[in-house]
Design a protein that fits this description.
By secondary structure, this protein is mostly helical. This is Antitoxin.
Length: 87
């Protein structure tokens, strides 16, 4: 694994990180490692969510178009065969 150092972090921030790490039963290093991993994974998940939303929108539009075409064809079929359906 790679290492990096972050400088000039306010003491209040370090104290807050230490408190949160302690609440989670972790060391400062372990807590920050998990926090960074979670942040990266969250960004990846957000990207996947956006792709999924785009896919759903595209497919929904295609389904609506297909349903409208099917409805039109069914109405034409019923008209040709003299079938009436009460609304």
């Amino acid at each position: 694994m790679k290492q990096f150092m972050v400088r000039n972090i306010p003491e209040k921030t370090i104290a807050g990180i230490d408190d949160l790490a302690k609440q989670n039963g972790q060391s400062r290093e372990g807590y920050i490692r998990d926090l960074l991993n979670h942040h990266v994974l969250s960004a990846e998940v957000e990207g996947l969510n956006m792709k999924y939303e785009t896919l759903v929108q595209t497919m929904s539009q295609e389904w609506i178009t297909a349903l409208n075409a099917n409805t039109k064809a069914l109405h034409k079929f019923l008209e040709i065969h003299g079938v009436k359906i009460d609304d």
